[in-house]
Amino acid sequence: ISETMSTNEENKLPLNGRRAIPPNYSNDEENEVPEMEAFGLIPRGFNPRDYLRVVDIYMFKDPHEINKQEHHTDKYYNPKLIVRRGQVFQIQIDFNRPYKPEADQIWLEFLMGRYPQQNKGTYIPIPVGGVLKPGQWGAKVIHRENNSIRLSIMSSPTCIIGKFRLYVAVLTPFGILRTRRNSATDTYILFNPWCELDAVYLDDEKEREEYVLNDVGVVFHGNVEDVKSRSWSYGQFEENVLDACLFLMDKAELELSGRGNPIKICRVASAVINSRDEDGVIAGSWNNVYDSGVAPSAWTGSVDILLEYYSSKQPVRYGQCWVFAGVFNTFLRCLGIPARLITNYSSAHDNNANLRLDFFLDDEGKVDTRLTKDSVWNYHCWNEAWMTRPDLPVGFGGWQVVDATPQETSDGMYRCGPASVQAIKHGHVCFQFDAPFVYAEVNGDVFYTRMEKNGTQVVENIDTTRIGQLIVTKEVGGDGMMDITEEYKFREGSDEERLALETAVMYGVKKQSIQDTTYQPQTDVDMDFQAQKVVLGNDFKVTITFRNKSRNSYTATTYLSGNIVFYTGVTKREFKKHSFSAKLEPSSSSSFDVVIKSSEYMSDLLEQASFHFFVTARINETGKILAVQKAVVLEIPTLRIKTKGELVAGKETSVIVEFTNPLKQTLENVMLRLEGPGLLRTIKKQFGRIPMNSTLTWEVKFTPMRPGLRRLIASLNSDALRHVYGELNVQIRKP
Length: 735
What we know:
Shape: elongated
CATH superfamily of the largest domain: Transglutaminase-like
Number of domains: 4
Largest sheet: 11 strands, mixed
Distance between the termini: 50 Å
Structural class: mainly beta
């Protein structure tokens, strides 16, 4: 395409010795395309009207028409044509006279960005010919009637994805005639998990419906002993979300020519979804202070976050791991890359690919918070994206870990992945990207180390099973939990597990050998710790049980420390100290209860109602130390949602959200949010206060847009109580 730049524009462009044209990473910018491109001097008698001229182009772009139906893009709330690559779609062209294939020469042109080039995939000329070959661009006439032709167009399964501009060009003896720029014919091309030649091809229809087309999901949180779940609205088909996702790639400065490659897209997206570099989408905050922003627990889905970022271009405040993962999932599904949200329970953190987490104890066996720097997150959420890995040896395609929560830098930026799940399982962590880090998140060992006065470290206890105890995702086609721990690791203690570990260590995962330290485990006494399950705001009891397997009598000086913690395992404050002496009879078990009063914890409780208990016991007769730690999560009351009246598409109805305050205090600054993809955009309402034991009722009128099974999701946030959710599945009937 010939392109003449005006001189003042040339002055603005910095000269660059490496490239003739500037970097091309905006899908939005355009170039001028001439309507008449002359081959030389045009004779005076030339009149373009004498030649074949395009009068109209029809894109079959309505949701019920053939293209969006066959390409599974009918749910996108977007008036333009959206198709998936590597699969045929149809358009109709109306001319000023009948088209004569033997005499008329026409072709289509798809362009992207400001500097379209054929070798970069941003300028795609498609001659109208006779046959379509799978795997490459082509167009053929499938129907002629009067002045119209219908074309079947095949796109390449490796073409770049994004928004293309379409022109129809007609050859005349004196030059090329083109249609005028018309944004109504813009065409979005996305990844195609239904096409065998696409790098994201997924062969199971039920999985495609879940991992590409489902616009709601479930986030698992809580802890291993007490798995909790809540809904999240991905909303990948909602209005403007597709444009917002394309904008993220512009923001990450991913060259247009690289946008056909899901590996590159995942890698740049895992950096741009957090704000740590270049002002990405979400600002993380883990300190329980969310002034001038929205508390992470208040969000009910991704749409508000993406649209706010798309309009303000400023990081949205605030997020924690499930928010980063929820938004990343929306981005991937929106572009057509199969994706799912993963929760890893007891996730090792700050691990710089080191398999050892140290908890230091002082002389009395209490945890020394000054020396202990490592933390174990109750849970951590990341994503998996499905794709082939032609950059790795055979066998490492399939699910890839990508993580947008800023934890460690990778090649100088806060990002993580894509790392092959298969490579992590087998310990082949030499393969890019960031596999050692993920391996350590699911495979670390917890060392309880006592510092003696002379500086020697004595290892009192090693817990090899705690980290990565349970890895889950939402089941396909339902809201239940699917345990995928075995995708990441072999069974604890199996030969395969040992081999995978040796392989990982060979490839640079750091594992300290026990020989560096003295370690003599206590074998003849076991200690266990259990907590009663209760609703937030009540007293509860915890039980410490000793099992003395020896024939000796022992006394154990026992110390219990109860801490209020962030879900990341970081302590905010110790709220309970309790020590006692336990008499342990030979060959028997003894239990000791400790009562925790609500008055002891309510004032400082953090939003996920997480406690962390450390129990250490010194056997006086032998000097050995037992240590156990456990996370406890209280039950948080839920919101009740019900509908009033019949549920018919296009007809107004109302939904009622109710909440009863269970605490022994008034809730201040109460904020409710309600949303449902395909039902209603997020609605927020501020309530001043809810006194203890009283019930709040909120009625919202709305008109459901589409028939089918939909989900309403609500959240409540207040100063003293957060992480309160409710949800309701509703069946909307056809009118």
